[in-house]
Amino acid sequence: MQPSPSPADPHALAGRGLRLAADGRRAIVGIVGSPGSGKTTLARAVVEAANEQAGEPVAAYLPMDGFHLADATLEALGRRDRKGAIDTFDGWGFVALLARVLAESDHPVYAPAFDRAVGEPIAGSVAVLPGTRLIVVEGNYLLAPTDPWSRIPPLLSESWFVATPEEERMRRLVDRHTRHGRTPEAALAWARDVDGANARLIEQTAASATLIVDGGLPVGAA
Hints:
Strand content: 15-25%
Structural class: alpha/beta
Shape: globular
CATH superfamily: P-loop containing nucleotide triphosphate hydrolases
Oligomer: single chain
Distance between the termini: 19 Å
CATH class: Alpha Beta
Radius of gyration: 17 Å
CATH topology: Rossmann fold
Largest sheet: 6 strands, parallel
Number of helices: 6
């Protein structure tokens, strides 16, 4: 792990990712971070930069959020009021998908994505095509030490932890939650109590990441 965060430069990170897949085999890079860290923005930017550098679509973006349990399932389990916690995801399904994309390169592998407009996962939203060499996975719990999440690191070529100051993460989260319908007061409460509890677990996993990048800067800033 780096002694201090490296700049969140998607072009440099894309080159690093492509080198991991230079032997012709597929490589999965995991981008990890707490809610509001900027991991989604960075992951998408890295995929775009990798495809630009390769001159063809060789990189794919794969979000863990597609494995959110449906709201109806969370209601039945009594977990709807803390959606986003580690036990509100289909962790086993996510691990199985990562194993599939490594093993199955001769046909498309379809995966779900999360639609924030409806607040639910949408099946088959992401396609990992046969020509894909680099898969950029992003999510909160890729480095969590408990089963089944502990099965993820051996599937990753590297893991990059996005470190972002808490004040900046909170600002982003409150803005996100208000844009999706919560009152400012409810947005702050959710960011503090629900997202905050998840962040305390996630931040403890940073020590096992391959690289730490600075999520407090705009993507591409020095």
